[in-house]
Amino acid sequence: METNNDRVEDIGKYSKQQLEDARFGWLLYDAPYKCARYIGQMVSGKSVFDMGAGTGIMAKIVAAITNKQVYPYEGNLYFTDYPDEQFGTVYSSHVLEHLAEPEKMIKESIRIASKKVIHIVPQGNVDHLNLGTPHLRYFNRKTLYNMVFEITKGRYPTTITFIEDCHMNSLMITIHKG
């Protein structure tokens, strides 16, 4: 029987069961470590915020790579309750595709970042490779860039990087605020 604690609220929060299932998902592959290295190379500022941190493993890897304090966050991804520009870099890895409204998370990440926003998503429909929670969105370079451009209205330079992997290719979009 499903309880309120097991249901996923439409605020970008994972249920306890989803977090438990994720332990056996994509972390078995080297793809997350490649993503962490890419994130680590792009980090700016003194503090780093991992938005949608799940188990917190990615935050630990990025902290080890950058020698910076990384704050893992697994709460309401559409509104974090942090002040504007609280963190130098805000990132997420393989989170947006699980959200009904990823635009809200991107807006919030831009609001709380002072220097950079980094979001990594799988390229295309990778449901046959997905061992975790269901994907609600699929991205390619064009759809990811257009979604971010619609949000930012072109106010910030934005780049897309292709991360090739034998398990799952990813796209990394970086919004350069300052």
Task: Report what the structure shows.
About 30% of the residues lie in helices and about 20% in strands. The chain contains five helices and six strands, in the order ααβαββαβαββ. α2 packs across α3. The model is unreliable at about 1-10 (pLDDT under 50).
Keywords:
178 residues; alpha/beta; Rossmann fold; 6-stranded mixed beta sheet
- The assigned structural class equals alpha/beta
CATH class: Alpha Beta
Under CATH, the topology is which? Rossmann fold
- State Rg: 15 Å
In whole angstroms, the N-to-C terminal distance is: 49 Å
Largest sheet: 6 strands, mixed
> What order do the helices and strands follow?
HHEHEEHEHEE
Q: How many beta-strand segments?
A: 6
- Provide mean pLDDT, rounded: 87
Range of helix content: 25-40%
The CATH homologous superfamily corresponds to Vaccinia Virus protein VP39
Q: What is the molecular shape? A: globular
Count of runs of 4 or more consecutive helical residues: 5
The tally of structural domains comes to 1
In short:
Helix content is 29%, strand content 22%. It has 5 helices and 6 strands, in the order H-H-E-H-E-E-H-E-H-E-E.
Element layout with pairings:
Blueprint: H1 16-22, H2 31-42, E1 47-51, H3 57-66, E2 69-73, E3 87-93, H4 102-112, E4 113-122, H5 141-152, E5 158-163, E6 170-176
Parallel strand pairs: 1-2, 1-3, 3-4
Antiparallel strand pairs: 4-6, 5-6
Helix pairs in contact: 2-3
